[in-house]
Amino acid sequence: MITIDIRSRTPIYEQIYKSVCADIAKGILREDDKLPGARTLAKELGLNPNTVAKAYSMLERDGIIYSAAGRGCFVASQKASSAHKRLEDELKGKLAEALASGLSKERITELLDEAEMMNKEREQ
């Protein structure tokens, strides 16, 4: 389930990219699952098809999805767990940034606990 936040400062194509990665990491999307076509998804989300196409292009470039001519885009084999690796790399970068700005390890742990609680509430 691809979600976007129009109020976020994160570009929409990047939100789509991250949403697909998260769905793969959670097991919602599995190897060879078909993704909605760029035009279809754009219409569902009220976006320009080029925005979705850009996200799909980035996902394909990074080996997270693959395209089959005339058939669409599909989730690639995640043997190297590229979706997880992408999320982990992003998180490491943000954690390093937080530590460098003076946020304590203890506060980061508190924030992680809060995020976990928010995630559990969303799942209910």
Our Rg estimate from Cα atoms comes to 16 Å
**Which series of helices and strands comes N to C?**
HHHEEHH
Stretches where pLDDT is under 50 for at least 5 consecutive residues are none
Structural class: mainly alpha
Feature tags:
60% helix; 2 domains; 124 residues; single chain; mainly alpha; two-stranded antiparallel ribbon
Please characterize this protein's 3D structure:
- The protein has 5 helices and 2 strands, in the order αααββαα.
- The protein has 124 residues and is mostly helical.
- It has 2 domains: 12-75, Winged helix-like DNA-binding domain superfamily/Winged helix DNA-binding domain (Arc Repressor Mutant, subunit A); 82-123, no CATH class.
- A two-stranded antiparallel ribbon has the order 1-2.
- Helix 1 (12-26) crosses helix 3 (49-61) and helix 1 crosses helix 4.
- The radius of gyration is 16 Å and the shape is globular.
- The chain starts with 11 loop residues before the first helix and ends with a helix.
Quick take:
With 124 residues, the protein is mainly alpha-helical.
Furnish the topology, listing elements before pairings.
Layout: H1 12-26, H2 38-45, H3 49-61, E1 65-68, E2 72-75, H4 82-100, H5 105-123
Antiparallel strand pairs: 1-2
